[in-house]
Amino acid sequence: AAKKETKDSLESVLLPVQFSCLRHVPWYKETLAERYQRCLDLFAFPRIKRQKLQIADPDDLLPRLPPPRDLRPYPEILTMEYTGHQSAVRSLSVSPDGRWLATGCDDHILRVFEIHTGRLIKQYDLRGTVNWVQFGPVLSCPYLVAAVENEIVFFAASVASLYRSHDKSDAPKTKFDKMFSFEEVRNEPLKIFPEGEADTQSASINTFKQTIPEDDLAKFTFPKESTNGLLLSVRIHAAVHTGSIHRSGDYVAVVAPDDAVRQRRVVLLNIETKKAICPFKLRSLCKDGTKVVGCTFFEHNTNFLVLTSAAAYIFDLKEQSLLKKLRPGGTSLTAADVHPLSGNVICSAHSDAQRSVMLFEGDGEEKPVQKFPAPFAGSTILSVSFHRKASKYPLLALGDTSGHTSIFNVRSLMDDEILDTKASIIPLRNLRCESQAATTAAAFHPLLPWAFTASAKGEVLAWVEL
């Protein structure tokens, strides 16, 4: 009976109706109802019943990080303060043998300290703000570079050790003489950095205030005598803010962000041939007020990093071509450094909303592979530095405006060595100066897990492992 009733109802619904033409065929009245029921089936009747996660502690979702004590050694305790600075310290550098510490200050003084004793060895009155200092990376050609306004001055460093060496090979001496063409420095080597317990030596350096033709990129000037160890002075068109030295010591790159000619805002100096070049096409990269912030050589290839406030650019020095543009994504970059082994680039950035640190793969995509907020909210990171001996000490230092220097462990996700392109960043320690002034510069010891920090109030501190 039920089947017969169903059959009769279907026949009543499906009774044929005749129309004279196709346009007289009406709309199916059950269309909307059927579509509505179909949507309810899709929405209200899931195909798979999903089990919700029962999370008792939200901290369980965070990755498990090893305790900092298992990642020692790294700088932890304050061991020494290098005194005498009367104003903000803009830059500091450690010699490649780990013996000397050079600082550049707003009080126009370039100071050289002995690291282990804190004794002031040498000070130069350069009669201008010392924006950048750096030791040459090669022991066989020891020199110290300082940037004062438009001038880049080169001083001899530990030349007495060089010419008293028992090495029978004349290659180091030949390289030094070929780069600077300065024979007189052999006669009075102890006037530069004393080898014994001598008194502090002070010197006033008159930089060569000579005009430079508009067509020339730089003017190389050699002193007439070996007074105070001055080897060479190079003058360019605009004030130098920072720079970088190639691992071979032959090339020095300087940044002059205020140069009216955008092509000259990054200048490469060949110390051996005494020539200056501008191989980078910065005219299109520095539009709309974009400022060049810094530059860095890569350790194991011919790549070169140019950092602007809008983006970071990787150039090939051999081909003189642009390889890649690293895009931070709507933020302004402040500092950067290149990892000595993997070639990864880490940049600090700030915007109106947040301050962050970005990690880019040297051979990967243009977008950052990792991005994490600044260690201290509201503080802008001014200094980024990797340890040069990264295979033994995988350390990273970030100095910010809050007066903190944050130490991180940067290790690979495989085999605990930084040989992979993807790296994990583990916080270790926050170092803070007593005055809580902004950390303007930070650098690692080239051979030991020590860190050196400089502040806007003239504090230069040494931090060592526990």
UniProtKB/TrEMBL annotation:
The keyword Nucleus applies. GO terms for biological process: maturation of LSU-rRNA from tricistronic rRNA transcript (SSU-rRNA, 5.8S rRNA, LSU-rRNA). Its main location: nucleus. It comes from the Eukaryota. GO terms for cellular component: PeBoW complex; preribosome, large subunit precursor. It is found in: Nucleus, Nucleolus. The keyword rRNA processing applies. Keywords: Nucleus, Repeat, Ribosome biogenesis, rRNA processing, WD repeat. InterPro entries: BOP1/Erb1, BOP1_N_dom, WD40/YVTN_repeat-like_dom_sf, WD40_repeat_dom_sf, WD40_rpt. Residues 8-75 form the BOP1 N-terminal domain. GO terms for molecular function: ribonucleoprotein complex binding. WD repeats lie at residues 82-123. It comes from Paramoeba aestuarina. This is BOP1 N-terminal domain-containing protein.
